Every structure is written in C-alpha cells, then in structure tokens.
C-alpha cells in the first residue's frame, strides 16, 4: 500500500467517454460528477448500455477519459495509473482467472503481481480459498468450475492485496438466484469486515436494493438519481392495483379514485393502478368506498415502491422493459469484450 | 527495472504452468510437423553429396515446429482476452511490457521440448546427432521463437477478439514463410522473384544456420547470419508486441 489517503475514495469531474466506430460516435459516459467516500458501498444501477462498464473501465485505468478527470484512492486515473492499480481490486464482467490455470496458482500469481513475497502470496491465497469456500476446487483447472465457483474465485483475486477500493462489474450476472444471494451476502460481509470502499454495477434492481447503501441510477451515460434506495423510493407512493369484473366498472372506479389527494391513477382494461403515499394503510378505506359505490374490486394487490418505479418515474421507461432492447450485434459484443 | 524483471518472471511462470502440468499438449501441438516428417522423409532423394536426406530435412522440420508453435501462441492470449483474464492483468500493477515479454520468453520452453522430441525420434534412423551443434541451433531457434511468439501476441491484440482475423493472417503468412525459407524444398533453381523473397525472409538464414549446426559444422558467416536473422525477428517482434500491449485496453 502506498501513502494513506484521507479524502474521498473516488472523485470524478466532468468524466466523459466517447467511442467512435464506423463514423458514429457513442457518448457512453457524459460529464459524470461524483464523490464517493471511503468505506461506502455504492451500486451503479442502469439498463444495458447505460455506461456503467465504461465508467468502471475509466476508474480502473483500462481506458482513458475523452475529457474530464477522475481520481481513485487519491491518484489520478491517467497520470497515476500505477498507483491506482496498486490500490484497487477489480472484478470485471468476465472471468479474471485464466481458464487453463489452477485457481490457487492464479491467486498466488496475482499476489506476486501486487508485490507480495512468495510466502505471503501463498499464505494469502490459502486464506482467501478458505474464506470464500473454495477449498474443494482451488486446485482444479478453472475451466472445470461452476459459474458460482468461478465468480467467487474472481472475487478472491480482487481481494488478494486488501484493496482500498474494490470494483465489481455485474458480479452476479449469469448466476442462479441462490448463488446470486450467496454472492450478495459475501460482498456485504467483505465490505463490513474490510471497511473497503466497494463500487459495483448491476442491472438487477433487487441487487442494488439489497446491497448498497447508496444507489447511483445511470441512464444514457448520465446520473439521473443518487441517493439511498430507501430515500429514492420514499418519494414515490405504494402501488395499489385493483382488478374489476369489467372495463366499465374499472373506469367508474378510476373516476372515483381520482379524488384521492396526491395520487396518480392509471387504468388499463379491467385493472386500475393507484399510486399513493401510504397506500397500504389506506387500502381498507378505499375498498369500503368502492364497495359503497357499487364497484367492489375483484382483486387487490398492494406493492411497496421498487427501484424500477423510481427508474420509471425518472425516465418514463421501465428498467425491466429496457432490458429487452435488442442486444448489440455479435461483432459489437466481441469488440466490447476485447476492448 | 527490477519490477520489470519480477513482473516478466511472474508472467512467464504463469504461462508455463499449463505447459508443465500438461506436457502432452506440447506433443499434440507438433502433430503437423511430425506428419510432414513421416510423410516426406521416405520420399526424399539421396543428396548429391551422398549425405542422408534426413540430415537435410530434419533441421527444416525443427524450424517449422518452432515457427508453428510460436505463431499459434497468440490464440491463447485471444482466449484470455475473451474470458476476461487479460483485462484483469491489465488492471493489476504488472507492467505492460512485462505482460508481453514474459509471454514471448515462455515460447522457448515448448520449442525446446519439441526439438528434443524430434531429435529423439530421428536419431535411431539415418540421422547423425551432433549434440553441440543441436544445442547451438536451439539457442538460435530460441531467439527466433521469442520473436515469432511476440508477433503472434501482437496479432492477437490487434485482432481484438475477432478470431477469424487472427487465423486468416496467421495462416496466410505461415506457409509462404515456411516455403520461401527453404524448409521443405531447397530454394536452388527457384525463379528470381522467389529467390528475392527468400533472401528477404529472415527465417531463411535461421534455417541455413540450423542446418549447418545440426550437421556439426560451424561456418562463422552462416551462423552469424542465422543469429542476425533470428535477432531481427526478435527485435521487431518485441517492439511491435510491446507497442500493441501498451495500447491494449
Ligand atoms: N469499445 C467500445 N466501442 C464502441 N462502443 C462502445 C464500446 N464500449 C462500450 N460502448 C458503447 O457505450 C455504451 C455504454 O456501454 P457500457 O458502458 O458497456 O454499458 P453498461 O455497462 O451500462 O451496459 C453502449 O452504447 C456501448 O455500445
Ligand atoms: Mg456493462
């Protein structure tokens, strides 16, 4: 570890990155101004193509910014590349461990790359293997490990040198739900134990919600919201979804519900959505009122606001729908992977 | 400088791990030259000088094995670019030049193993083993392999995960390089244009020097030209390779 540094872990000023391919310019990241304090656990949440990976790639010195500046652990990502690399751990979108290698060998080699002595590198590899529950597979070829095991190995690689800032790009993509939850618990535990700053990206709302103290919502290369998940959601009301026997009943009920103060009502066919603060508390009253009016709902659901609602509220698009946008063509994916 | 050496050794040792663990892969990688050896050797005419044809042919096959092995090696890096482990290494404190040089240096090991196998296979036949010459030739070939390996890595980096580009260029260059170096057929009596290409091909000098050394002779000019040819490939390869690695992201 180089000098201890007391300022924020990450500072960006007007951080911007453009890509030009086939005469077209993609503004992947546009003027990011961020400050992330030491010890924070932050999630970048946004749909595919929002610019999350590009941001991480700039912060981890893989690609230089087109304009603007960024510093990580007190070092500039362009002029202090080597210091940044010493200070950070990076778990990329792919597999950090080589497929033809043994897990333990990769951990040792990574430790040596960070300047550990041979003995320390071996000891540290052993610790991480035990800590991340990799004993059974650490001496096997990486290509033979399951997705979840490989991901744990990747994380172990990122932790070899006790980094002050740990970056994880889509750590749980490709994992089944059980493994995803295990991984989230692991990240939280590591964060609590090491006190490192942790920055991860995700397009899973549940993940950002469950994991991070601070959620930075990005879309089209810009930050559109930056707060705790609870505060982001508290501005939106609960969703009360009411089903009716017919569209005319629904329309009649919608008319009556529009009188609820500070609420929003959306009708589609036989369903009426009422969004209102503390909706769960007033649902009894609403049902009684509609029954008295002769249009009792046949179905009722009450949902607390989700980050998806936050995204919808901010952009007019659903984060879930955005996932279904067409995938980039094969060559684009390849160049992205290789880039 | 010391970090460069430490980083280079780290990268080289990592690259060698699969070689030590699965030495048979080194044998499988040389199937093609071995097939050439098995198919061509019985067809070779006796040399005018009366020497065994194998004596002339084996050094060419050795050089061919070195060229093939080292020129394929970029595919390993391409695999690492695709999987993400190359990216992980780029973010580590390992220097860019070390990431290239360590990989290129590693090429020497499988090449030496392959030379040993070929020599062991042909020695029971009409091939005279001149151990000193073979060892000297191995040094020249080491320099050559480092250079070709570095070029192969540079090509992998330039192809940026587009496999077809790597393989098209590698395959397109491989056989002309082999043929114009006089590996399979002597270049005597070739048309003038071919002769010019052959003189421009640094591998020509490597092959000539390896032939002389395998025969147990040490003609100073031929050996010096061979070393120079290998050194040219090594210097160009490492220069291009380090440049490509510095630009890799
Ligand atoms: N190497 C590249 N060349 C061209 N365009 C790129 C490259 N990398 C990313 N992009 C583009 O930049 C935008 C942001 O991509 P990315 O940062 O990968 O998004 P995310 O990680 O949020 O899914 C996308 O439109 C993507 O196609
Ligand atoms: Mg991404």
TrEMBL record, chain A:
The keyword Transport applies. PANTHER family: ABC TRANSPORTER ATP-BINDING PROTEIN, DOXORUBICIN RESISTANCE ATP-BINDING PROTEIN DRRA. It is found in: Cell membrane. Pfam families: ABC_tran (PF00005). Residues 321-332 have a biased composition (Low complexity). Keywords: Antibiotic resistance, ATP-binding, Nucleotide-binding, Transport. It is a peripheral membrane protein. It comes from the Bacteria. Gene3D superfamilies: P-loop containing nucleotide triphosphate hydrolases. One of its GO terms (cellular component) is plasma membrane. Its main location: membrane. This is ATP-binding cassette domain-containing protein. The keyword Ribonucleoprotein does not apply. One of its GO terms (biological process) is response to antibiotic. The lineage of its organism: Bacteria, Bacillati, Actinomycetota, Actinomycetes, Propionibacteriales. Residues 317-339 are annotated as: Disordered. Residues 10-245 form the ABC transporter domain. InterPro entries: AAA+_ATPase (IPR003593), ABC_transporter-like_ATP-bd (IPR003439), ABC_transporter-like_CS (IPR017871), ABC_transporter_ATP-binding (IPR050763), P-loop_NTPase (IPR027417). GO terms for molecular function: ATP binding; ATP hydrolysis activity.
TrEMBL record, chain B:
The chain crosses the membrane at residues 24-44, 56-78, 108-127, 133-157, 164-185, 222-242. GO terms for molecular function: ABC-type transporter activity. GO terms for biological process: response to antibiotic. It is a multi-pass membrane protein. Keywords: Antibiotic resistance, Cell membrane, Membrane, Transmembrane, Transmembrane helix, Transport. The keyword Methyltransferase does not apply. It comes from the Bacteria. The keyword Nucleotide-binding does not apply. It is found in: Cell membrane; Membrane. Residues 24-248 form the ABC transmembrane type-2 domain. It holds the Pfam family ABC2_membrane. InterPro entries: ABC2_TM, ABC2_TM_bact-type, ABC_2_transport, Nod_factor_ABC_transporter. Belongs to the ABC-2 integral membrane protein family. This is Transport permease protein. It comes from Nocardioides glacieisoli. The lineage of its organism: Bacteria, Bacillati, Actinomycetota, Actinomycetes, Propionibacteriales.
